[in-house]
Design goal:
This protein is mainly alpha-helical and 203 residues long. Helices cover 48% and strands 6% of the residues. It contains 7 helices and 4 strands; from the N terminus they run H-H-H-H-H-H-E-E-E-E-H. Strands 1-2 form a two-stranded antiparallel ribbon. Strands 3-4 form a two-stranded antiparallel ribbon. Strand 3 (180-181) and strand 4 form a beta hairpin. Helix 1 (16-37) crosses helix 6 and helix 2 packs antiparallel against helix 6 (123-141). The radius of gyration is 21 Å and the shape is flat. The two termini are 31 Å apart. Residues 44-53 have low confidence and may be disordered.
């Protein structure tokens, strides 16, 4: 099977590398929540106007507001509740403010990460949601990837079908390596091949 996140061949629906990455994002979420406060209000302009309202719209960024009001905690607590049920643990109790909900549910998932990776049937859903939340936070905070997609990997697998995982190159790293390694099938594309491949895929 292939990892639901990176599409590499893996023994589980989420590979160990992506699960480790997801856990590292969990450790950052409480701090990221505080950082999002600085992005809540734009320096100028206005928020979205509500139809029929006579009052001026609140100058807030809606995606940031969503992340600050349950966009982080709710998906994580949903999975925490499932895990608690499967492990026959007590239910989640009232946790107060959003930062406390985020902190406690992240701590829970981190402390049960080994069990989750081994026995949780919704592992792929949990991991991809964590990574998705992280991507949204990074976008709001301005942490954007500089990777450029040059096309899909055409390597034919054992099933007779092309790999099709997106091949990406970071221009900033071209002075260090001229190779691209497909994260799906591990095919290594030297500079001469991936540059030619990119031209063919654009035709």
């Amino acid at each position: 099977m292939r990892c639901s996140n990176c599409k590499r061949l893996a023994e589980k629906e989420i590979c160990e590398s992506c699960w480790t990455f997801a856990l590292n994002q969990l450790r950052k979420f409480p701090t990221r929540y505080d950082e999002l406060e600085d992005e809540l209000f734009p320096s100028q302009g206005y928020g979205e106007r509500v139809s029929g309202s006579k009052t001026p719209p609140l100058p807030v960024k809606l995606e940031t507001l969503h992340l600050r009001t349950g966009g982080i905690s709710q998906p994580l607590m949903k999975h925490e509740a499932r895990i608690r049920f499967q492990r026959k643990e007590t239910r989640i109790t009232f946790r107060g403010e959003e930062i406390k909900r985020i902190t406690l549910t992240c701590e829970y998932h981190l402390s049960h990460s080994d069990w989750t990776y081994s026995d949780y049937p919704d592992l792929a859903e949990l991991a991809t949601e964590i990574i998705g939340i992280s991507n949204k936070i990074n976008y709001v905070l301005g942490f954007k990837s500089e990777d450029i997609v040059i096309g899909s990997c055409p390597t034919i697998g054992d099933d007779g079908k092309p790999c099709n995982v997106k091949l990406k190159v970071n221009p900033a790293n071209l002075d260090k390596t001229m190779e691209i390694k497909c994260r799906g099938c591990d095919t290594v594309w030297p500079s001469s091949q991936w540059r030619h491949l990119g031209l063919m895929l654009q035709e």
